From TrEMBL:
Organism for this UniProt entry: Mycolicibacterium moriokaense
Family affiliation: Belongs to the SURF1 family.
Phylogenetic placement of the source organism: Bacteria, Bacillati, Actinomycetota, Actinomycetes, Mycobacteriales
Record protein name field: SURF1-like protein
Main location: membrane
Biased segments, Basic and acidic residues type: 260-272
Length: 272
């Protein structure tokens, strides 16, 4: 037991605590975080790929009611007939399109025989830094549009909606938040117009089908969680072996281990 007493020293105890905490975080937080992002990205890539070949369907077959949402049909192309409600328009700010800042223009659309759904008409570029440019109005007559279903985005915490340049502005396309800002009910999913549609502005391209590095990052965190305790075990084993070798190499006259003072005296030739 005396040989292992050094493991109870504060420095070693602190090392054990840090390694255990690190391994715990690797398995419960860091690896699941990256693997979850990989699962989400892979699912979205599959939805985009499927949408490229699937024919458009009527919006009301997927969003039949005002409180409907369609997370499993994201990116699916749909068609809807109805009319825009341009008086309730809002802008999603701090967006990036093709590497440059942009506003995305959000206008509610009343579907004939269906819900009121939020439509992302596309993007416009800011002027003079973050100023709102002149935006072409949406048509007021009845039109038929083709768009892609999109999931509602989470609300950006600490960034409240505000009104500037005569337009309501938000930091995310959250249908719940935009509904509250506009003062009207909106379906749980929103629409993103494809090219050549009535009321369309700058077209937002589909994301690249890239799985990203999330799977490899997740595997790396798992490996780190396994390797860290192994390394500590190796250091403990090496320390015990070193102490045994020192004891065997420098016994005192009584056959016991030398004290620290005796070791120093012996090293400098002053031991009697």
């Amino acid at each position: 037991m005396r040989r292992l007493a050094f493991l109870l020293r504060p420095a070693w105890l602190a090392l054990f605590v840090v390694v255990i905490a690190f391994a715990y975080l690797c398995f419960t937080v860091l690896a699941p975080w990256q693997l979850g992002k990989n699962t989400k990205t892979s699912r979205e890539n599959d939805q985009i790929s499927n949408s490229l070949t699937a024919d458009p369907v009527q919006l009301t077959t997927i969003l039949p009611h005002q409180d409907s949402s369609a997370p499993d049909a994201q990116w699916r192309r749909v068609t809807a007939t109805g009319h825009y409600l341009p008086n309730a328009q809002a802008l999603a700010r701090l967006r990036v399109v093709d590497g440059d800042p942009a506003f995305e223009v959000l206008t509610p659309f009343a579907v004939d025989g269906g819900p009121v759904v939020l439509v992302d008409r596309g993007y416009v570029r800011p002027v003079q830094g973050s100023g709102v440019p002149t935006i072409a109005p949406a048509p007021q007559e009845s039109v038929t549009i083709t768009a892609r279903l999109r999931d509602s985005e989470p609300v950006v915490q600490g960034k409240d909606p505000f009104r500037q340049d005569g337009v309501q502005q938000v930091y995310s396309i959250s249908t719940t938040q935009v509904s509250a800002v506009m003062g009207m009910p909106l379906a749980g999913s929103y629409l993103q117009l494809v090219d050549g549609q009535p009321g369309g502005l700058g077209v937002i391209a589909l994301p690249h089908l890239d799985a990203g590095p999330f799977l490899s990052y997740g595997i790396q965190w798992i490996a780190f969680g396994i390797i860290a305790p192994i390394l500590v075990g190796y250091f403990v084993y090496a320390e015990i072996g070193q102490r045994r070798r020192e004891k065997a190499a420098t016994p005192d006259a009584a056959g016991g281990p030398l004290t620290t003072e005796e070791k120093l005296a012996d090293r400098y030739g002053r031991r009697r």
